[in-house]
Amino acid sequence: MTVTESNLPHGRDSLTEDLRWRGLIQDSTGLDELRELLDGGRATFYVGFDPTAPSLHVGHLMQVTTARRLQLAGHRPLLLVGGATGQIGDPKESAERTLNPPEVVSGWVQRIRDQLAPFVSYTGENAAQPVNNLDWTGEMSVVEFLRDVGKHFPVNKMLAREVVKARLETGISFTEFSYQLLQAHDFFELHRRYGCQLQYGGSDQWGNITAGVDYIRRRGAGPVQAFVTPLVTKSDGTKFGKTEGGAVWLDPELTSPYAFYQFWVNADDRDVIRYLRYFSFRSREELEELEKATAERPQARLAQRALAEELTTLVHGEREMGQAVAASQALFGRGSLDELAPDTLRAALTEAGLVHLTELPDVAGLLKESGLVPSTKEARRVIAEGGAYVNNTRISEVDATVGPEDLLHGRYLVLRRGKRSFAGVELRR
Question: So what does this thing catalyse (predicted)?
């Protein structure tokens, strides 16, 4: 990825104004100071990710794509994966976190570092730098930590943090209570070691981030700036980044590229324009044109498809994006099933509902076993009325059967009832 003038916000806006138009600045330590820093030259900034799972998920995309956006505008990213803070975990409002073994966290640190690599460039004048807070925190003794760090934190301010107040009645350990000190010290160390002038994160991190700004001032350093992005929400009240199958991960082994693509294609009309502003690297002019076209023809789902294609390409690459698009079309009879790779086909059928059989009944039996119809009688009726398909071929005989030669990749069948209801069968011998 090369930083050029063409990467900068197009047309009328500076970087800061582009971030504001996209809704990416919810709070900041000072908008004028932030504008001077981001629009006045090259700044070094940091964003942190705690390895509390083996993969990032789409909830992290706001921070990942913002890092890419800032680097494309000429600024230098420090991508912190917290080998120290990941062993503790930022306090949750509900209950104490489960502590993971250090060796597990260490493995997750490397996996997440690798996962971040495609989003930024590690070469050039503003090359990204991976950092790990265990490098400086792990060297500190308890006495050093309490004397050099803890001395600068008024407990009354720490108690005022919302998540801490929410936990006071049910209880919060000193371990989680001290997380704020660790994150603040990270900012100080990155400022001291790399000249870091800016930290950003999600809005739930505002208390931790401003504590770091204040801590740096108390240590006689700075000035530094900070901003937070908004919490990404869904209009229907469900949690962003969650599906019936759980979290939508960036790791293709945990969430297939097809399922990732479908997550964005299925975005609610009320949310998709906001998501485009948050995550897309299209210019303001391009997005405004897309918004207008989507409003005129909402049934075409132009915004959803544009967002799905851009983000699937960014996270998984152009080939996987192409396979996801091809699968979406082929499953509904608008493309060739034969051209789908086995992994893509299996992922798509798993999303729809994949049943495993050791032998193949007739087509009516397949429709029933797959759950597309409640009974064999209903299956025969659907076939007789011309509404049943196997591998996109309409079945007209109520007693029709399939054989080994009909299996895709030697093991799969795609069943469809009508235009939009489909399921998969995998033959296991």
Answer: tRNA(Tyr) + L-tyrosine + ATP = L-tyrosyl-tRNA(Tyr) + AMP + diphosphate + H(+)
